[in-house]
Design a protein that fits this description.
By secondary structure, the chain is of the alpha+beta class. The protein is 35% helix and 25% strand. The protein contains 3 helices and 12 strands. The chain has a 5-stranded mixed sheet, with no helix packed on it. It has a 5-stranded mixed sheet with strand order 4-12-11-7-8, with no helix packed on it. A hairpin with a 5-residue loop joins β2 and β3. α2 runs antiparallel to α3. The longest helix has 34 residues. It is elongated.
Length: 230
């Protein structure tokens, strides 16, 4: 009866399920340790764990049968990195600020080749960067949204050294007057570049035409509109 149970139930059903469950728990535990660590901590754990795996493989390949001391070394190499990493993640070995944990890290912002650009190289007018470093003065900013990014996104370059600039987009009143504010970028002092990303809005939500200007140098202004690709 025991043999039949072993051959029909334990080996083909219970044992594989137990192995898979153990693997799932181990992978989940490792993922949790890495996510609740800092970027540097997770990298250190991965490097030490990889070294432990290489050591384990090397010892196993060089010996037909491992003695007690080598088994202890293998166990130490396999367990210690994750044990220390888990203790660090749990705050038992140091204190990690929540914003520094991988689980709370902001996703990387995708800046595609077609992301709209606008620049300032003087305090008179905005310009559009082109090939070869030239920047063409503009009074009409025609924007083709980057299809790779759903949110409102553009790159602002301040090319005027030592001078602060920003970009404000507002409702257009009349032919060339600013109405209610829609958005304003941070002020940056040149030479510098910043990426403006409004996660709560998209280009489609802007009016058909809008007014843009620098709040520090209001003479830098123009009318913008979203145009279809192609």
């Amino acid at each position: 009866m025991k043999t039949e149970f072993r051959n029909r139930v334990f080996l083909p059903i219970v044992l594989p399920i137990a192995v898979l469950s153990t693997m799932a728990l181990f992978i989940g535990a490792v993922a949790a340790i890495l996510l609740w660590n800092t970027h540097q901590g997770a990298l250190a754990i991965a490097v030490v764990a990889a070294a432990g795996i290489l050591l384990t493989v090397s010892l196993a390949a060089s010996q037909d049968r491992l003695d007690g001391s080598r088994k202890a070394v293998i166990a130490f190499a396999a367990v210690v990195p994750f044990a220390l990493g888990g203790a660090y993640a749990a705050g038992l070995l140091g204190n990690i600020a929540d914003e520094d944990r991988n689980i709370n890290a902001e996703p990387l912002l995708v800046i595609g080749e077609n992301t709209p650009l606008i620049a300032a190289e003087n305090s008179v007018e905005f310009c559009l960067p082109g090939d070869g470093g030239a920047c063409e003065p503009i009074e009409t900013w025609e924007v083709t949204p980057d299809t790779e990014v759903e949110t409102l996104l553009f790159v602002f370059e301040n090319r005027e050294a030592g001078v602060p600039h920003n970009v404000q987009i507002a409702e257009l009143e009349g032919e060339s007057e600013a109405g209610a504010e829609i958005l304003t970028t941070e002020t940056i002092t040149g030479v510098a570049e910043t990426v403006y990303n409004d996660d709560a809005s998209s280009w489609d939500e802007l009016p058909e035409q809008w007014y843009f200007f620098c709040t520090i140098h209001p003479q830098m202004s123009g009318v913008g509109q979203v145009v279809a690709e192609g």
